[in-house]
Design brief:
7 strands; 2 domains; three-stranded antiparallel β-sheet; alpha+beta; BirA Bifunctional Protein, domain 2
Length: 266
C-alpha cells in the first residue's frame, strides 16, 4: 500500500529551482507534517514498525525485481568514491522489501511502514512535483487473504483520517492474472505486452498477443475491460477464468465479508 503526497506549486518559481521542484513554505509544510504524523500513527495502530531506507543505493540493488517504468523514473549518478552507478529512489517499496528479506529476516509476520521523499525524473502531471512524499505500509510473511484485507483496511483508515476525501473508491487487482496469462512469454515481448496492459492500449495488445494460443489470446484481450464496479465483477469472472480472483476479492463476495472478521495473528 502506497500513497504519494503531491505538492502543487506556481510555475513562476521555476526560475529559482529546477522545473517541478519547489520549496515548501510554512503553512503547507505544517499541513504536510500533520498528514505525515497522522498516517504513521494509523499505521502504528495496525502494528506496523517504522523503517527509514536510504535516499540512494547501488542501481542494481535499487531496481532489483522492478519493471522498466521504475527504471525510467530513477535518477542515476556515479559514486565519486567507488565509481559505481547509484540511483536516487523513485519508490521506496523495493527498499523496504530488501530490509525485510535481508536485514530483519524474521520468521512469521512482519509489518513495516515508511514515509519519506522520493525523486522522479518526470512529474506525474503538468502541476505535479518531481519530489513527492511517499507513505506506505507492507505486510510480509502471510500469503492469505487476511493480509490483503488488513492492508486495505489500513489504507481506508488512513484516507479517512486525512479528512480530505468525501467518497472513497477502492480499486483491486491481482498480479497473478498477468503472470498466468504470460507464462512462457519472455524478453522484450513480455515487457511490451505488460506495458500495453498497464496503459490499456487495446490496439497494441491485439497485435502483440495475436500469436498466443486461442484461449490465452482472448483472455489477454479482455483484460483491459476487467476494470469494473464491484457488482459486475462476478459476471466478468465467469467470462474470464483467470480473473476469478477479482470476484473472490470483491466487496460483494460472501468470502470477503467472512474474511473481514478475521485478522492475522500479531
Amino acid at each position: 500500500m502506497r500513497f504519494l503526497i503531491l505538492r502543487r506549486f506556481p510555475m513562476s518559481s521555476a526560475w529559482l529551482l529546477p522545473e517541478h521542484i519547489a520549496d515548501v513554505l510554512p503553512a503547507q509544510a505544517r499541513h504536510i507534517e500533520e498528514l505525515r504524523r497522522g498516517l504513521l500513527d494509523v499505521a502504528r495502530s495496525f502494528g506496523c514498525e517504522l523503517v527509514m531506507p536510504p535516499l540512494m543505493e547501488h542501481i542494481e540493488s535499487l531496481l532489483s525485481g522492478t519493471g522498466r517504468d521504475l527504471d525510467l523514473k530513477t535518477f542515476k549518478l556515479v559514486d565519486q568514491l567507488s565509481g559505481r552507478t547509484l540511483g536516487v529512489r523513485a519508490d521506496a517499496t523495493p527498499q523496504v522489501a530488501r530490509i525485510d528479506a535481508h536485514l530483519l529476516n524474521r520468521s512469521g509476520v512482519t509489518r513495516l511502514c515508511y514515509c519519506g521523499p522520493v525523486l522522479h525524473t518526470r512529474p506525474s502531471g503538468m502541476q505535479g512535483t518531481r519530489e513527492p512524499l511517499q507513505f506506505g505500509a507492507e505486510i510480509y510473511g502471510h500469503a492469505g487473504l487476511e493480509a490483503d484485507i488488513e492492508v486495505q483496511d489500513l489504507a481506508l483508515d488512513c484516507l479517512r483520517g486525512a479528512a480530505c476525501l468525501q467518497a472513497l473508491t477502492l480499486d483491486l487487482s491481482d498480479a497473478r492474472i498477468v503472470r498466468a496469462l504470460l507464462d512462457g512469454v519472455e524478453g522484450a515481448r513480455r515487457v511490451e505486452i505488460e506495458a500495453a496492459l498497464a496503459t490499456k492500449d487495446v490496439t497494441a495488445l491485439h497485435g502483440l498477443a495475436s500469436d498466443l494460443d486461442g484461449a490465452r489470446r482472448r483472455r489477454c484481450w479482455r483484460c483491459p475491460a476487467c476494470t469494473a464496479a464491484p457488482r459486475s465483477l462476478r459476471g466478468r469472472a465467469s467470462r474470464c477464468p483467470p480473473c476469478r480472483s477479482c470476484a473472490r476479492h470483491s466487496m460483494i463476495s460472501p468470502s470477503w465479508r467472512a474474511m473481514r472478521a478475521r485478522r492475522i495473528p500479531r
